[in-house]
Amino acid sequence: MTTFVRNAWYVAAWSTEVDDELRRFTILGDHVVMFRTSDGKVAALEDRCPHRLLPLSKGKRIGDTVQCGYHGLTFDCTGACVRVPGQTNLPKSAYVEAFPIEERHGIVWIWMGDPEKADRDKVFDMPEFSDPNWALHHGDALHLKSNYLNVAENLVDPAHVSFVHPTTLGNAASENVPVHVRTDGDAIVAWRWIRDAEPIGFFKNFGGFDGNVDRWHYYYLYTPCTAVIDFGSVETEKKCAEEDRDQGVRIFALHFMTPVTETYTIDRWMHLRNTATDDAEAPAQMDAMFRKAFDEDKEILEAVQEEENRPQKRRPIRIAIDKGPLVYRKRINDLLELERTEDLAADPSPAFVYHD
């Protein structure tokens, strides 16, 4: 049974990954061909001709249409067939799916479900994207041989940082610090503060802290596949309140997970920072530190997936730190259930009287 929620916005690509060429992307197990039209907008079509099933990405552009490389059937950006060589009639079944696209902040978002439900106001956004006091930098696309659910759970789990990232994003000072979890909003939030402790490797290298700091991790997981990690440090003597985190060195690490198959996920990551905003060398320095940390995650997540693929002799256990991941799994299951069924009781028959 699939774990893919279709009625949601997913990151299909960085804007720099899509150009005039026909390029194939795989999202939720479906192949999609994307290209930029003559006006610079991104078009996304099902990458399979309905005639003999040749991928359209193996065809060619003709203006803003795509011609199949097998028998020349040609499709416009809405997915409609506009030409069948050798005949004048265009069968109604000769079409490909067209997927809604929204592009902003250098990110191409795609809607893989019912196009009538594609609300562009629900595309993820943050005020810091447009705030001149923050610097935005796109990172890499991390390819993981792991189901996206495991990847997402890792991104609402501050507790793993002490053990998986002891030289980059964590250290032993946080091992026994309680994790707080809030699940009543759009995002599942897990967070903790580590007070009066040695700075982690990331901020030793980048923040320039010499003495002890107060540091924080706030993990925000938006269902199904967007995570924001707000982390930073401030000198302990400043006695920084939780709502005053901008007084310190503060960074948002954003992760946009694209499920490719049930065992393969692409995690496109970027960051926003309130420090060194005009430093041309800062992005590359931070990328290097992030890559090291994310490679540590990759090793763990791929090993977990490998074990999940093997027969299980007993049920896995859950412990106190799993509150966020458990709520996340429930939200995913609820969304999947909504997509598996059709609610025909929206306007109940007068034969039934409800007392809610």
TrEMBL record:
Gene3D superfamilies: Naphthalene 1,2-dioxygenase Alpha Subunit, Chain A, domain 1 (3.90.380.10), Rieske [2Fe-2S] iron-sulphur domain (2.102.10.10). Residues 9-110 form the Rieske domain. Keywords: 2Fe-2S, Iron, Iron-sulfur, Metal-binding, Methyltransferase, Oxidoreductase, Transferase. The keyword Heme does not apply. One of its GO terms (molecular function) is 2 iron, 2 sulfur cluster binding. Transmembrane segments: none annotated. Its EC number is 1.14.13.82. Coiled coil: none annotated. It comes from the Bacteria. GO terms for biological process: methylation. CDD domains: RHO_alpha_C_DMO-like. This is Vanillate O-demethylase oxygenase subunit.
